[in-house]
Amino acid sequence: MNPVILLIEDDPQIRRFLRASLVTQGYDLIEAGTGREGLALAASRVPDVVLLDLGLPDMEGIEVIKQLRGWSGVPIIVLSARGQERDKVANLDAGADDYLTKPFGVGELLARMRVALRKMVPAEESRQEGQYCLGNIKVDVERRRVWRGQEEVRLTPIEYKLLTVLLKNRGKVVTHRQLLKEVWGPSYIEQNPYLRIFILNLRRKLEDDPTRPQYLLTEPGVGYRLRDE
Amino acid sequence: MPDPGLGMAETSQPEPIAAGGERLLVCLDPSPFSIPLIRATKRIADAQRAKWYALYVETPAHDRLPRENQEQVAQALYLAAKLGAQAVKVSGFRIGDEILAFARENGVSKIFVGKPYARRWRRFLGTSLVDHLIWNCGPIDVFVISGEGEEAAPAPAPGPKRRRLLKEYLLAAGGVSLCTGLGFFLFPYLALTNLAMIYLLTVVIISSFLARGPAISSSFFSVAAFAFFFVPEYFSFAVANTEYAITLLVMLLVSILVSGLTARVRHQARVAREQERQTAALFEMSQNLTAINSLEELLQVASEQLSRIFQSRVAILMPRTEEELKSRAGYPFVDEDVREGMVAKWAFKHGHLAGAGTGTLSAVKSIYLPLIASQHAIGVLRLEPLQPGRVLDADSLRLLEALGSQVGLAIEHENLSRQAQGVQLQMEAERMRNTLLSSVSHDLRTPLTVIAGSASTLLEGEETLDRFTKHELAQSIFEEARRLDRLVHNLLEMSRLQSGEAMFHKEWYVLEEVIGSALAQLDPQLHDHPVSINLPTDLPLVQIDALLLERVVINLLENSMKYTPPGTPLEISARVEDQELLVAVADRGPGLPPGEEERIFEKFYQVAPGSARGAGLGLTICRSIIEAHGGRIRAANRPEGGAVFSFTIPLGEGAPLLDRPLQETAEKN
Fold first, then answer.
1. 3-state secondary structure B280-330
2. Which of B267, B385, B415, B419 meets the CB 3.0–4.6 Å disulfide criterion with B390?
3. Paired sense of beta strands A223-226 and A173-175, if any
4. In which element (H, E) is residue B403 found?
5. What distance lies between CA B396 and its chain's CA centroid?
6. B449 and B417: one domain?
7. pLDDT of B530 higher than 80
8. Domain assignment of residue B377, yes or no
9. CB burial readout B92-102, b (16+ within 10 A) else e
C-alpha cells in the first residue's frame, strides 16, 4: 500500500508541481486548499505525512499544527519562506517535525519525507542496540564508542549524549531548544552559546573539515541536523 | 520755507537722491503726536512710492523725560518700522543739526515734522526746531504737519526721580558751602582770582558727578557765594569795582560752560555704554543662533539668553492650531490670569508688541513680543521680569525688539533649511526608486527569460531533444530560480534594513559555524571556485545576528565569484586585532578599479554597469549589516593581485569561553 500524503496548500501551481512529482514517486496524494479542509481530511483519511504550507487563507499554520497535535502524531513537514526563522522555530516547538524553505527542490522534499515516514517504523529500541554508520563515522551504541575511519574518537559524556540525540533524530532538524533540553535538561534551554561550543568541538572531532561539515549540518537560526545517508 | 516745487530744481549741490525716487524723513518727538505724524507720512510715502525714514534724535534731555514719553518714542519707532519705514535713533545734542545731517547723508528730499514740538519759550527766542530746519535745510523741503489737540507740557517727573534730584541739589549746595569754608581759610593767603579758580574746580567736580540741573545751579551758587563773601563789598552782593563784575561774569559763564560740557561727556559715555551693551547682546545672540541644529535647540538657546539679558522669565510660544498658542521653550508659566493668554494671542494676531510697560494692553504682568518672519508672526516671545512689578524701559524694549527680530529670522532660516532638506531627501528617494526599479526589473527579467525560454524549449521539443539537452535545460531553470530567490531575498533584506524594521537578534556565535553555514548555502555555485578557509581554532565568540552575518559572507562570496574568472581560488581568513574580530574574503581576480574601493558599497553601484548580474545591492547590504554590528567594512586590492573585502566585529564583554564550557555543571545533570 502506498503511503498517503496530505498536502495543505492554497496555491494551485505549487499543488500541481507537487502532485506531478509525488504521484510519480509512488505516493497517494490528497489535497486541501484551506486549513479547515486539511484538518477534516486529516481526520477522515488518516495520512502518513502532512505537508503544511504556512500562508493559508483561513488560519495560521501554527494553529493547524496545534489542533492536529491535539489528537494525532502524524509527521508534519512545514513549507515556509525564507526569513521566517522565528516562525519555523515556533512551528517546530509546537509539534511540527521538519520544515522546507521555499523554493525547494523535489530531492530535498523526498529526503525529508523518507525521514518522516521512517519514524513510522516502530524500531527505535532495536536501533538503540546496534551500530550506526555515517560515512566513515561509526557509532557503537552498546559500548558507547565512536570511530572516525579506523581511529577511535574520544568524546566527553556531553558530546556523546549530544551525538546520540542527533542520531536518534537523524535526517531531521532538531531545534536548539530541543537539544539543550534533551542533553542538559529543561533549565538550560536558553544556553545557545554553550550548545554551539559543543557542536564546534564535536565537529572538530568528527568532521574532516569542520568549517564545511558533511554530517553535523547547521540549520541557520533554527538548530542542527545530522545528515541521514 | 523754500518753494516745494523749486526745491529740487534749485539744488546746485550733487545731492545723492536715490534713483528709485523720493526719500522721506519723519522726525519723531516724545509725544503721542508722533503716531499720527507717522501715519500721515506713511500715506504720503505710499502715494509717492517713496522710501521713508523715521528718525528720533536722542538728546541728553531724553533721560530726563518721564518714562511714559520715553515709551512713546519706542512705540513710535516700532510702529514706523512696522509700516515699512527705516526706523533710526541717533544721539546728539542739537536736534535740528542731527536731523539735517541724517537727511543729507541719506539723500532725503522731504522732511516731515510735527508742529507742537517747539516749546513756547523757545519760540519766543526764535529758535524752534521748525525754524531751525527751514533756515538750514538747503534744497530739502520741510513739511510741518499740524497736530490736533496740542500736547500739554511733559508731565512732572515721578516721585523717586524728583527725590533723587533734590538730593543732588543739596549735594551741590553742600559742595559750594564746603568750598566757601575753605575759601575763608585760604582768604588771607590767596589773591581773589585764585580763589575764583577754587570755585571753578568745585563746579567741575560737582558737574562731573551730578545731573545737569544741580551742576548749573552749583555754578550759580558758587558765583553768588564768591560775590557775597569774598568780593568787596564783603557780605553783600554789591560789587565795589567794575573789574570785579567782569570777573564774576566770566566765572559764571565758564562754570556754566564747564558743567554743560561735563554733562555732555557723561551723556555720550552713557549712550556708548548702552550701545555697547546692545551690540554685545545682539552679537552674542547671533553667534549662539548660528551653531544650532534643530528648532527645539534654537528656541531653547534663545529663551535662555533672553532670560539672562533681561533678568526675566522667558518663554517662546508658537501656534499649535489656528487659535491656540503653545509654549515651546523656556519658563513653564502657569497663569491664573486669563488675560495673559489673551494678550499673547493679540500680540501674535496683530504682530504688535503688547503687555506690561508697552502702552498696549499693559494690565498684564508679562511683555509679549511677536516673532516676525516673512512678514507675519510665527510666534510670540513672553517675558516677565524676575523682580515683580519691574517694567522694561524704552531702551530695553528696543533691544528686546532687535533680539526678537533676530530670533524670528533664525527660526525662519531654520524652517527654510529644514524644508530644503526635506526636498533634497525626497529627490534622493525619488532617484533611488527609479534606479531600483530599472535595476531590479533588469535583474528580475534576466533569470525569468532564461526560465521561460528553457521551459518552453522543453515543452516544444519533447520529442526532438536528446536527454542531455533536456537535463541541461532543466538544470538552468533550477539554477536561475535559485538566483532569482537570492535576489528577492536581498531586496527584502535591503528594504528591511533601510526602513529600520530589521530586528537584530544578537547572540554569542562561533564564527566558524556562520561561515560554514554560508558555504553550505552557496555549495552548488562554488564548484568553480576552490575555497580555502584559514581560521585560528581559538577565535573568541562574537555577539552577532548570525542570519545577517551569514548574509554578509554569502554576499561577499557571491560578489567575488561574480567578478573573478572560474577556477580562481577564494580565501576566507579571520584573526583578532585590537579588540576586534577581523574577517577577510580574498580573491585572485582582476581586482578593483583604483579609487573605487569605497564607491562599491554604494547602492546600485556596479564596477562595469550592465556587465554582471545583480542589482548592486549585495555590498550595500553588507555594509548596513556590519555597521549595525558596530564594525567597519572595506575593500582593497591585494599587492599580489586580486581584491580583498574585510570587515570587523567588535569583541564584546562577557563572551562565553571556548575552553571552559558548561561541562562541569552539565555533568551533574
1. HHHHHHHHHHHCCCCHHHHHHHHHHHHHHHHCEEEEEEEECCCCCEEEEEE
2. B385
3. antiparallel
4. helix B394-460
5. 20
6. no
7. yes
8. yes
9. beebbebbbeb
> How does the average pLDDT of chain B come out, rounded?
80
Write down how long chain A is.
229
Task: Report the amino acid identity of residue B512.
Answer: E
CB contact under 8 A, A200 and B510: yes
pLDDT digits (tens, 9 = 90+) for B376-421: 888 898 988 888 777 777 778 888 888 888 888 888 888 888 888 8
Judging contacts by C-beta atoms under 8 Å, the chain A residues touching residue B489 are 82-83
Q: How confident is the model at residue A163 (pLDDT cuts 50, 70, 90)?
A: very high
Q: What per-residue confidence (pLDDT) applies to B521?
A: 84
Per-residue pLDDT of B491-504, as tens digits, reads 887 777 777 666 67
Q: Determine the average pLDDT of the residues in B274-283.
A: 82
> Which chain A residues contact residue B550 at CB under 8 A?
220
**Minimal CA separation from A63 to chain B, in Å:** 25
Interface of chain A against chain B, CB under 8 Å?
82-83, 85, 103, 105, 156-158, 183-185, 188, 191-194, 196-200, 204, 209-213, 217-218, 220-221
Is the domain of B231 the same as that of B310?
Answer: no
Give me the pLDDT at residue B20, please: 53
Range(s) of the domain holding residue B36 = 23-145
Give the number of domains in chain B: 5
Domain CATH code at residue B37 = 3.40.50.620
The separation between the first and the last C-alpha atoms of chain A, rounded to the nearest angstrom, is 25
CA A48 to chain B, closest CA, distance in angstroms equals 29
Q: What is the pLDDT of residue B303?
A: 87
Is residue B527 located within the same domain as residue B645? yes
Interchain pair B547, A221: CB under 8 A: yes
Sort out which chain B residues have CB atoms less than 8 A from A192's CB and list them: 507-508
The CATH number assigned to the domain holding B641 equals: 3.30.565.10
Angle at B79 between CA B74 and CA B80, to 5 degrees: 100
- Residue numbers in A near B507 (CB within 8 A): 192-193
